[in-house]
Amino acid sequence: MFADVLSVQDHLSLAARWGAHDSEPYPVVLAQGEGAWVTDVDGRRLLDFHGGYSAINFGHRHPALIAAAKAQLDRLTLSTRAFHHDQYGPFCQELAELTGTDMVLPSNSGSEAVETALKIARKWAYRVKGVPDEAAEIIVAADNFHGRTVTILSFSTDPRHRAGFGPFTPGFKVVPYGDIDALRSAITANTAAVLLESVQGQVGVIVPPKGYLADVRALCDDNNTLFIADEVQCGLGRTGTTLALDHEGVRADLYTLGKSLSGGLLPVSAVVGRGDVLGLIKPGDHGSTFGGNPLACAVGRAAIRLLATGKFQECSRELGAYLHARLDELDGVTEVRGRGLWAGVQIDERRIAGRRVTEELAARGLLCTESNGHLRVAPPLVVTREEIDFGVRVIADVLA
Ligand code: PLP
Predict the structure, then answer these.
(1) pTM higher than 0.90 for the full model?
(2) Cβ of 255 below 6 Å from ligand 1
(3) Which residue out of 91, 259, 290, 312 is catalytically annotated?
(4) For 225-258, how does the pLDDT look when each residue is reduced to its tens digit (9 = 90+)?
(5) CA distance to 56, 62, 70, per residue, from 65 (Å)
(6) pLDDT tens-digit profile of 50-72?
(7) Which of 57, 146, 155, 202 best tests ligand 1's pocket when mutated (most atoms within 8 Å of CB)?
(8) Calpha distance 155→133 (Å, rounded)
(9) What is the set of domains in the chain, with CATH numbers?
């Protein structure tokens, strides 16, 4: 089937020669995907326990998303925000209704949604809270991951991400994640917002201590400060609820969403939240050529319809409990963190470490990434119990 295409080595050489070395991909060259499985250029199938960093929550090429994309490709793909189009209003309404929010500001990447939320919070601080000009502060958590733009890197605590990219944007304070006393001490009259991932994804699927996020909400209320929940990775069904904050019965003022908002078909992101806050954005304040484009909105609407069934959240809850129980039993695993079909699996590095873990997993038919001693397991939410058994068996073999 793939006989007339380039070999794996050809692809690796082309990427190394012609592509900037921004990442260090594992030597697997993917050609197709369907449901929870991908196929490489040699026609070898691998079970996807990576899930596109949670962008593939509905599985690869979910038929409803593909159908929506194809239908829209045959109609209209771009109007820009200079003109209305017939997918924008319905997309905003349906996303607001799904998330129980008042208003939506669409964009493309997750980083862009975070940047947009930061702009809105600063504007709110100056126009509503009365913070003196240029003095607004935003508090974030250590070990955060919110993207790769210069402003976002300004409050990253990972030196590998920051080195060589300064000078950085001022106006951010960093406190330990999960430490409410540290947050209380950091808040001042100039604090515009607290920005947190509801579950910290990139650093290893860290669920904060019980009650922490409710305490953050209360602290923000007491100090007239916005609470921004970054749910680009943990939102939209990944943890077993539509929004990860739903587990805590907590509402944020603004949420950033992305990744699975298009089910992995194309970059679609958004800030959603309170109308009195998002309503501060006026014409000329913000803009994006592709943000909220017809194709993005049509695919986004199909993703929203899938989430509105509740089926994917339920699958994450039920099979997530099973996945966690199976991973917990493994020799060579020191801790399993996370929620739903999402797990940070800490590996005893005396067994196997670094890139070799992922390479060995891939050699045995499992796609999964490793960083800082943990596997991040995030299969598409269409995975079956039998597929989980297969994936866990492969991990067990590699750790043996
Ligand atoms: N926020 C969180 C919590 C993320 O995990 C990510 C990406 O992994 C981003 C923002 C940035 O999203 P993107 O890579 O689409 O810019």
Answers:
(1) yes
(2) no
(3) 259
(4) 999 999 999 999 999 999 999 999 999 999 999 9
(5) 11, 5, 9
(6) 999 999 999 999 999 999 999 99
(7) 146
(8) 21
(9) 8-61+311-399 (3.90.1150.10), 76-308 (3.40.640.10)
